[in-house]
Amino acid sequence: MLRSGLRFARFPLPALFALLAGLSANATLFVLVSRLEYQQEESQFKEYAARRFTAVQIGVNNAMEAIHSVNRWFATVDNVTPEQFQAFVRPVREVHPYFIAFAYQRIIPDSERAAFERRMRRRYPNYVIRDRLQDGTYMPARPESSYRVIEEIEPATGNEILLGLNTRSVGVQDEAAHRAQQTGMPASTRLFGMIQMPVKPQGFLVFAPVYRKGAHRHSEQAAHGDITGFTVAGFHAPEFFERVLASASLLEGPSISISLYAGAPNPNESLVYQWKTTEHEDSSRYAGWLYDTPTHELAHELRIADASWRVVVSGRAKSCLKSHIGSLLLLAVGTLATLMAMSYLIVLHRRARQLADVNARLRDSEERFRHLVDMSSDWYWEQDAGLRFTMMAGRMVRENPGLLDLVIGRTRWEIVEAGFSAPEMATHRKLVEARQPFRNFEYPVRSQTERMFWVSVSGEPLFDDAGAFLGYRGITKDISERKAAELSLRQLAEHREAIKEQERKRIAREIHDDLGQTLLALRLDAAMLHARTPAHALLHARTALALQQIDSTMAAMRAIINDLRPPVLDLGIDAAIEWQVQQFQQRTGIQCDLLWASDAITLDERIATALFRIVQESLNNVLKHASASRVQIALERAGDELMMTITDDGVGALAHACRKPNAFGLAGIGERVHALGGQFDLITAPGQGMTLRIRLRVGGAFAPAADTQADAFNLFDPS
Fold it and tell me: How many domains is the chain partitioned into structurally?
């Protein structure tokens, strides 16, 4: 003992202190890093749980939306036939396969029982309204003031025994129907054994009341007379929630357990469904090996109709070797070398913070992406085989409740604004009647609040397995703000052109009045001097040269005035265009033919100037691109409509090829025509020349096309 104490005493105190301090520091750092790793694991678990909660909530919302759509359909359609019921409900069940069945329960007064049974016997010879006894047997319904009878059910196969059942005799259904009738809102039954699974009480029904047309909902009157029946949707709770999670690929994840509990209207909360991962069972026994690790657990409350449900996601920490390998390595290295352990801790700490920052950025990025997706698709819609809207959902629908009443049950061409371009809608109808997909079709709609808004729709056709057409589905975006911006830009361009023409006219007039008079006076003086100096040869030659320079300057001035605004415009549009054509023929040698109507020469100055500029730009395009030998310009007037046609025999082109980047000739013509409230068509094809057709209204009040928000011009290929 003494020798051991002496050897210990000879151990250097700084080294011993460094060793003890290093071990203590490493132990402390190990605990801290382990806690950080555990917090990261807990954060990851919360993210796993939140995704599953969101998926379940979305699935419940979609299911309730489908129930509401079936209910609204029953409320709007009178005397639903079995074929209609099957045709409407089957696509809903195909989209939402977790529905066990859909049924319609009609309320039959006792006075109408006999007539109702006779009517139903035409389809089912042995049909009779029946009660279900507590032992599960059926017998003809005893007399009551009214009956709530299952009239339609889908799928019918396997559920034939339920047709004609008086559900007032089934306590679990009668309770839910009574609550739905009292509140005017959908109500859920408590869990019970369904006909498909009678042993396990894991099924439930959602009752949605169907009102008579014009009924006052949520009122005492509605509760006692205006409800004609109930649409009923059946669910098998475990299958419903498992399908929802599986469709989102969320039945996976390390150490995760998902439990579903059913609450009210059940007397006691009960476990209905539970799913566990295999990894949870393998790793749970290792959790807490090094320090106490509690089980992670998060719960989410949700409602299906008026029923309460609770989804619980739980999980335990991974094994120490899996979740704390960094801290264990730090502890081992730190025991051998304190300094290296401290350096490693700094690196590990930095990496942990970087990883947390990256995770936070990823979550923020994912959240922004979800918001962008929600904003980019204002609403989702579906149409039936008759191209009538059957379902709409999305942000725009939530913000405008009256939109459903405006759209559901109608076709797109029935809701379009009355002043919209008929040819464009006709083209769209041909496309959808040919069962072709379409993208970014734009048209205006006037809502029930008299506010007109523009939308852009994209859709694709739907077919069943046999190739039969089922309808369309797609998305719609609100582009009203973009259309308003386009309108503002066009108005600004129109204002700019007007100011430019005024400035041209003013500059040309000032050049003519001021500079022209000065040059004319200067020429007169030079001419007089030239006439008086024949005897002085040198001076005479100089005055002759001055006269030539003055004449050249006056010619250049006239050319500038003509480029700015030809004075011939003051003589009428016919004279101005004839002058322009003569100048073009002299400059290019291309033959031009003018065809005039006698009553088309007196026009408003604004229209005349625009037509002159259009002819000027068209002839420039012919010279640059057409390689034509002949041009024909026709102008005729029929009542309040003026039509100008400019045709060349050049090389032509495809219509879409005329829209080249940084080529604004045709676009400028279209904007000028649009500003005057007219229509511009371009007809061309390779090797067939090009025709510009312009229609303007020149009589009555002037109404610029910007008020209609129509397109500037249409391009099409006649071939």
Answer: 4
Crossing angle of helices 605-621 and 573-588, rounded to 10°: 20
Residue 324 lies in a domain: no
Identify whether the C-beta of residue 288 lies closer than 8 Å to the C-beta of residue 317. yes
Q: Is residue 432 located within the same domain as residue 534?
A: no
pLDDT of 576: 77
At residue 137, φ and ψ (nearest 5 deg) are -85, 165
Q: Are 582 and 675 contained in the same domain?
A: yes
Of 234-248, 372-386, 658-672, give the lowest mean pLDDT range. 658-672
Whether the CB-CB separation of 476 and 379 falls below 8 Å is answered with yes
Residues 505 and 461 in one domain: no
Domain boundary residue, one of 234, 263, 285: 234
Q: Establish how many alpha carbons lie within 13 A of residue 457's alpha carbon, considering only the half-sphere containing its beta carbon.
A: 24
Residues paired with 49 in a beta bridge: none
How many degrees, rounded to 5, is the angle at CA 284 between CA 281 and CA 288? 175
* Residue from 40, 49, 48, 45 nearest 358 by CA: 40
How many Cβ atoms from other residues are within 10 Å of residue 50's Cβ? 14
Task: Examine the domain organization and report whether 550 and 579 are in the same domain.
Answer: no
pLDDT, tens digit, 9 for 90 and up, residues 59-103: 889 988 988 888 888 878 877 888 888 888 888 888 888 888 899
Distance CA 412, CA 438 (A): 13
Q: Residue 355: pLDDT above 80?
A: yes
How far from 74 is each of 320, 386, 425, CA to CA, in Å? 59, 18, 31
Task: Give the side-chain half-sphere CA count within 13 A for 11.
Answer: 12
Q: Among the three residues 478, 513, 543, which one is the final residue of a domain in this structure?
A: 478
Residue 97 lies in a domain: yes
**Are 517 and 575 contained in the same domain?**
no
Q: How far apart are CA 73 and CA 80, in angstroms?
A: 10
Co-location of 583 and 517 in the same domain: no
Q: Considering only the C-alpha atoms of the chain, give the largest distance between any 2 of them, rounded to a whole number of Å.
A: 148
Domain co-membership, 467 together with 580: no
Residues 527 and 402 in one domain: no
Residue 212 clears pLDDT 90, i.e. is over it = no
Question: Whole-angstrom Cα distance, residue 442 to residue 382?
Answer: 17
SS3 of 61, please?
Answer: helix
CATH number at residue 643: 3.30.565.10
For residues 122 and 247, the answer to whether their CB atoms sit within 8 Å is no
CA-wise closest residue to 651 among 693, 617, 685: 685
| pLDDT given for residue 701 in this prediction | 35
The pair of structure tokens assigned to 446 is 């006037």
Which token pair is 241? 């929630």
Q: Is residue 707 part of a domain?
A: yes
Note whether residue 292 is domain-resident: no
Count CB neighbours of 336 within 10 A.
Answer: 9
- CA separation for the pair 686, 301 (Å, rounded): 67
The Cα 148–Cα 108 span in angstroms is 6
CATH number, domain at 157?
3.30.450.350
Alpha carbon distance 23, 610 (integer Å): 91
Q: How far apart are CA 424 and CA 677, in angstroms?
A: 17
pLDDT of residue 377: 55
Question: Which CATH number belongs to the domain containing residue 401 in this structure?
Answer: 3.30.450.20
366-399 as b/e, with b when 16 or more CB fall inside 10 Å? eeeeeeeeeeebbbebbbbeebebbbbbbebbee
As given in the structure block, the two tokens for residue 215 are 């009924």
Using an 8 Å Cβ cutoff, are 484 and 707 in contact? no
Pairing of strands 469-478, 630-638: unpaired
Which of 691, 655, 665, 694 has the alpha carbon at shortest distance from 677? 694
Q: Residue 426 belongs to what domain range?
A: 379-478
Q: Is the pLDDT of residue 121 over 50?
A: yes
Please tell me the number of Cα atoms within 13 Å of 548 on its side-chain side. 6
Contact 617, 669 (CB under 8 A): yes
pLDDT digits (tens, 9 = 90+) for 642-674: 888 888 888 877 655 555 554 556 777 777 777
